[in-house]
Amino acid sequence: MNVPDFDFICSFIRQEAAIVLERGKEYLVESRLQTLARKESIASIDVLIQQVRTAPKGPLARKVVDAMTTNETSFFRDIHPFETLKKTILPELIAKRGTDKQFNIWCGAASTGQEIYSMLMLINEHLPELLTWNFKFVATDLCQDVLAKSKLGRYNQLEVNRGLPAAMLVKYFTRTGSDWEVREDLRRRVDFKEMNLVKDWLPLPQLDIVMLRNVLIYFDVESKKAILAKIRRLLRPGGYLFLGGAETTFNVDDAFERVMFDKTTCYRVKKG
Amino acid sequence: MIDIKKLIEQANELSPLPASTVRLARLVSSPESDLNDVAELIEFDQGLTVKLLRAANSSANASATRISNVKEAVGRLGTAQVMALAMAASTRPFLQSRIHNYGPGEPNLWRHSVAAAVAAEVAPHFCRVPVPPETLTTALLHDIGKLVMSRFLNPEILNFIKSAQEVDHLGEREAESLLLSVDHAELGGLIAQHWELPERVVQGITHHHNPEKSEDVICAFTYMANQIAKRIEAGLDGRRLNLLIPDDILEQVGLTKSSLDNYCPIAASRFEQLRKRYDAV
After folding, report:
1. Domains and CATH numbers, chain A
2. I need a surface site. Which of A149, A243, B113, B190 has the fewest CB within 10 A?
3. Residues A197-207 pLDDT 10s
4. So what's the pLDDT on residue B64?
5. What are the C-alpha distances in Å from A44 to residues A5, A30, A64, B1, B4?
6. Which candidate from B160, B182, B193 shows the least CB-CB separation from A31?
């Protein structure tokens, strides 16, 4: 891949998705675009990039953005946040919200859906009374392909092997050929929407839990600031924000305070 | 970049293991079974009985008393070694297949697998934490995923993986995961599932590069066995390899840095004796 093409892709991806790609990442860009070029029956990466230059708002350009996003996820990823939600945070919030019985959870980069379904299974398993409340699960992602997969809730054996306890697999999934499909009643509970975190946001409800793990790490500081400011305005008092292990609000948005529970770090808007 | 669906299909198309091997693996994994149960099962398998008696009387286990029955052989070798030998006999055709696409050195999967099994076999002499009996098997099979993965790799993909390792200092597993959305370890776990091996064996194989992802200590032991096997192999090829086992793994398996220094040369010399046993199965 030549330098002008690489620079163009970096700048295009930064503009469209605020993802920062630096020199040295040529291998990543090449590997992802080569896969896309083959899928779209385009002769080479050079031709593909030329088409994106010509139509930067076209469907192919959109697919390039999708291809460059990292969609790594798994059920109950890193496990500790889910333990903390189960043992501490959800019981605490249930006690606080008992009067209006409203509860809203948002996964801001839902990828292929494992995180939101993990939350649903956890609540169904341990705090089922919450599901009788006025409850909203919202899952958003900028990538159309992964969103479609989330909605379908169908996973292959490798995907269910990643973090999903066997008992939950049997209880919440049905076998479909060689794949596993999330039970329909669970799938129906989630509102999946397409949304780019660095563009205009869709209307979201006031939130009790925000899951935005391993997302900010890809963004520049200005985008991080803008995203955290929007979340701050959406979080209800006492609500929690979960970030990835390598991410923090520190020195980005100091209106948040860090809250530690055993091995879990999460964030809350400071009082006053 | 690769077709995951086809990859899973190929893993599930590998020939099944002999029923007696699977039963033996489950028996060794079951806390309710004992030496008698294991011996009883083996006695029904003529081929395995012969291999076991040969191993028990081999120079690597030299003793004044000659062993002539299965129960004594199981007693001398221990259930973990018996299971590993049975597993080696059943999986040898797979582990000895030529793996052309995995970079230099990798065609010799059998040697690496046996070296890891030997490292696991020696572990109880150095580790203060009890070694799970399935560890020899997970060590032996830890790279089985490469067998299927290699069919999907080509020079172009290998170059990308190499770049990811060099540019971003990623390990082999992380690079595969980033570029292919799957790595050889979890593919190995899938094969172990397909072979209906005990869950603990599946876990040990799946997490042999990232033991922190599992609470089962077998993953840390398998990680260690893999690292020591690399050191043994480097020695055989006249290379030096610094062994870097993180402190938390050493702590998990109950090994100090000084005992690790003693462990490696003994594992290497034991490899020469024990590889004959594995080669003979």
Report:
1. 3-68 (1.10.155.10), 80-269 (3.40.50.150)
2. A149
3. 999 999 999 99
4. 67
5. 12, 10, 14, 15, 23
6. B160
